[in-house]
Amino acid sequence: MSPDARREFFLHIVLISVLSVLLFPLAFALSNSFKTLSDAYSSVGELIPSRPTLENYIHVFSRLDIARITFNTLFIAVIAAVFKVATSVLSAYAFTAYEFEGKNALYFVIISTMFIPFNVTMLPNYLTISSLGLDDALIGVALPQLADATGIFLIRQSMKTIPKSIIEAAAMENKSRFGILRDIVIPLTRPAIMSVGIIFFINSWNEYVWPVLMLKSRSNFTLSLALQMYISSEGGTEFTVAMAVSVLTMLVPLTLYLIFQKFIISTFTSSGVKE
Amino acid sequence: MKSIEMKNICKNYGKVAVVKELNLTVKSGEKLILLGPSGCGKSTILRMIAGLEEITSGELHLGGRKVNHLGSGERNVSMVFQNYALFPHMTVEDNITYGLRINKVCGDEIRRRKNDVMKMLELSGLEKRKPRELSGGQRQRVALARAVAKQSCFLLLDEPLSNLDVQLREHARKELVRIHEKFGQTMVYVTHDQTEAMTVGDRIALFSEGMVQTLDTPLNVYNRPANVFTAKFIGSPSCNIIETKGEGGGVAIGNQVFSLNGSWANLLRGKHDLYFGIRPEHIELSEEPRANSIKGSVRYCENYGHKTSVFIANDGIEFAASVEETRFYPGETVYMTFPQDKIHFFDKKTGCNAGYPENISRSCENDPLYKRRIA
Lengths: 275, 375
Known about the structure:
heterodimer; A: about 280 residues; mainly alpha; 14 helices; globular; disordered C terminus; B: about 375 residues; alpha+beta; Rossmann fold; CATH 2.40.50.100; 2 domains; 10 helices; about 30% strand; elongated
């Protein structure tokens, strides 16, 4: 083997092992969701079920209002993603195209909020939302998630790569700066905007701690809360049903990611490199 | 009514003054070239006219209207950028019509103008292409088409040809002149290329360090440079400028004396510290001494095909001479003759031109070429 080929070989071994570690939980959930509980206990590591069954899924669809739960999750995720993207685009544009006093200081303050852990803001947010009378309401879950420093940062990085002269050429024609944003800046940063939106959507979809704090009634539950019902103290016996709910929970984010992975990867890899 | 007037315009970046007290009027329909070395403020001036750069102080009038407070979209000015600044996500025709659509020009009119400019700039057939699918020359033409389709009274060009190769540049230069002939916009053209300045411009404003060094027709700038900077900047190889002293009817060139005719001697009487200037192409070379010739030896030659630049040393002074023949070789002794009607003198203190004996008026109105262009 030439040194290059040997390098390739070892690299692949490393990559394959990392990939298997990452993929194992997925395969584990998927295979166990098609087993009966007794099968699962006797052959928990068996990736291809010897006697596949749809029992768990039937259970989920008959016992849970899965449509309602999915709608709740979707509702919160769409509001969070749409608003986060909108506010990120507008503020990223302001930080790119406008010159104003204290611009850098303000940007620094906004970016530094990325480093404040969720646990710190959780209680103040909870108190604010419940004093608005929005606890146990879907909108109350979405409300503190309407803006995000990460989105501002990533979209601004992408906007900065647009040559200044293109913006200026648009400014020669446009009386409004909003027109420039709409016609030139957004189309040119679309990949970044889309991938940031998808990341926001997936994050909100998978969110557990904040909804569990806010939502009390079962009719307002999201998918991750429904999943939790089957893995907590009383649900331990229904492990395979939990796996079926897991699979259903993963379905939407996974599909979105598979469709848009090209944008997402390029946004995250280029954000730090360019300029 | 399409003039551009700049009154006492200053531009500072922090404490650095980039443009200092600029007073300049571009006449209606004129092609004014802003020429100068990089960093001289010429692009800043263009960007101030376009509204892309704020004016620190002074007034800018476009067509008699003060526009300091107007944004670039409200000035009705079109511009061609150095890197063309085409919108990468739009097709050629969308690029050309974008400004018209935004400003609600009616559909028929948009189509008519688009077809006109595309035909004129030989872009037909490329309507649906994206900028990345075009060659450099095509992109440049699309940028020009976009600016022309707007049909504004003012056309600003920021080094529009500098990204093209030599042959394309020549072609594009002619195209620019042709378009100007057709539409007659008031044109301000920034370049650092003296060939473009000489061939395109009605007048040239030569800048250095944020100030106008000279403002005149190309021929006057070339033949009657207002100061040493102008003489040296225009022309390649650049004008020979030699420190000299008046010596009883002649001037000292190294250890030799170059005699002046009566009218020069009269003009320079009483002026002692001078610069003597002569363009390389005006120096006549011979192997044998002639009357009033200056001796030197050839250091090296640069052959350009159509001409040869001969560098000649004489008592520590170096001259550049451009000749058609290639019969001069390093180490040879040559004799230089300076025709009396081709030489220049500049005051050593101020660097300003010391004048010409034949009393040729230096105003551009006497330049027949200029008269014809403006008429």
